[in-house]
UniProtKB/TrEMBL annotation:
Its EC number is 1.1.1.133. Residues 1-302 form the RmlD-like substrate binding domain. The lineage of its organism: Bacteria, Bacillati, Bacillota, Clostridia, Lachnospirales. It comes from Stomatobaculum longum. Keywords: NADP, Oxidoreductase. It comes from the Bacteria. Belongs to the dTDP-4-dehydrorhamnose reductase family. SUPFAM superfamilies: NAD(P)-binding Rossmann-fold domains. GO terms for cellular component: cytosol. Pathway: Carbohydrate biosynthesis; dTDP-L-rhamnose biosynthesis. This is dTDP-4-dehydrorhamnose reductase. Signal peptide: none annotated. Catalyzes the reduction of dTDP-6-deoxy-L-lyxo-4-hexulose to yield dTDP-L-rhamnose. GO terms for biological process: dTDP-rhamnose biosynthetic process.
Length: 306
């Protein structure tokens, strides 16, 4: 199988490339930068063929897809700065990357008859209520620019392709980038007490674990939309922060606050990010490990890297 992976310089793309290389697959990584030398992540060094590609450049997308001619495109590239996406001068760019870039890639997949895997987000839903969101629920109602543009990408994939996987994830953490865990460890090191919201509920996703599932999935023809976060139940950011400090052996005190008490961020955040994942088991895929186990391995890896 020849796989083209966009966003190789990001958290997820980096781990997906490593997982595919580990399995002996032919992998071509892609990102914005002119060159990419790979990243030491404590367990492996990414050494794959690299093709620079700005996915907002339609002609470049068509050219690269025709040249590389992958059997599968794993599309991990995105604008992921959720608050900055709200800035008036950024909105168009965010839509170009998350919306139009995905549309161009889907069209190119159709042309060369490649499978496409698109990584999406819980932010396509309203975040209202307490019931977990089903993967095939079409009751979309994104509450911020990032969510709207990711939904545009989903619709483009659904409209143009039949051989697609849309995988929605949430609360992502990986070694190759910034995330909530790294922020907590950094800020907690200099602040004895932190306020963290306890009314936004979801489940973390460790990119190293997700990469295993994605590599399993693209080998199949079990197309459709899936939800994939770690197992272990739904938690609040407050509970996650407490677990992080406990795992790291830090005595930073965490105080639970509501989103209203914490103060509004630029982008609206969903209260209910519960993603229903039972479809994974029903389709014969191995679910991700418990998030506590993932956190344990992740903090250990960060320590080894330091
Ligand atoms: N980070 C999170 O908490 C969540 C992420 N997701 C989705 O998961 C996927 C992977 O996310 P991460 O690895 O965390 O993202 P990341 O921000 O670590 O990496 C994204 C990569 O996309 C690249 N990129 C940006 N604009 C590009 C362009 N015009 N052309 C080519 N490449 C471009 C960046 O250079 C970067 O390397 C994304 O689709 C994201 O929307 C979904 C839910 C939550």
């Amino acid at each position: 199988m020849r796989a083209l992976v966009t966003g190789v310089a990001g958290q997820l793309g980096h781990d997906v490339v490593n997982e595919l290389l580990r399995r002996g697959e032919e992998v071509i990584g892609s990102d914005l930068a002119a060159t990419y030398s790979g990243v030491q992540d404590g367990t492996a060094v990414t050494t794959c063929r690299y093709v620079p590609l700005d996915i907002t450049d339609r002609a470049a997308v068509e050219r690269v897809m025709r040249e590389v001619k992958p059997d599968v495109l794993i599309h991990c590239a995105a604008w992921t700065a959720v608050d900055a996406a709200e800035d008036a001068d950024k909105r168009e760019l965010v839509q170009k990357i998350n919306g139009l870039g995905t549309e161009y890639l889907a069209a190119a997949c159709r042309e060369i008859d490649a499978k496409m895997m698109y990584i999406s987000t819980d932010y396509v839903f309203s975040g209202q209520g307490t019931a977990p969101w089903e993967p095939d629920c079409r009751d979309f109602d994104p509450q911020n620019v990032y969510g709207m543009t990711k939904l545009y990408g989903e619709e483009a994939v659904r409209q143009q392709l039949s051989k697609y996987f849309i995988v929605r994830i949430a609360w992502v953490f990986g070694v190759n980038g910034n995330n909530f865990i790294k922020t907590m460890l950094r800020v907690g090191a200099t602040h004895p007490e932190l306020r963290v919201v306890n009314d936004q509920i979801g489940t973390p996703t460790y990119t190293l674990d997700l990469a295993v599932l994605l590599a399993d999935m693209v080998e199949t023809e079990k197309y459709g939309t899936y939800h994939a976060t770690n197992e272990g139940g739904y938690i609040s950011w407050y509970e996650f922060a407490k677990a992080i400090f406990e795992e790291a052996g830090m005595d930073t005190k965490v105080t639970p606050v509501t989103t209203a008490e914490y103060g509004q961020s630029k982008a609206m955040r969903p209260f209910n990010s519960r993603l229903e994942k039972k479809k994974l088991r029903e389709q014969g895929f191995t679910p991700l490990p418990d998030w506590r186990d993932a956190l344990h391995r992740y903090v250990k890896l960060l320590r080894e890297e330091a």
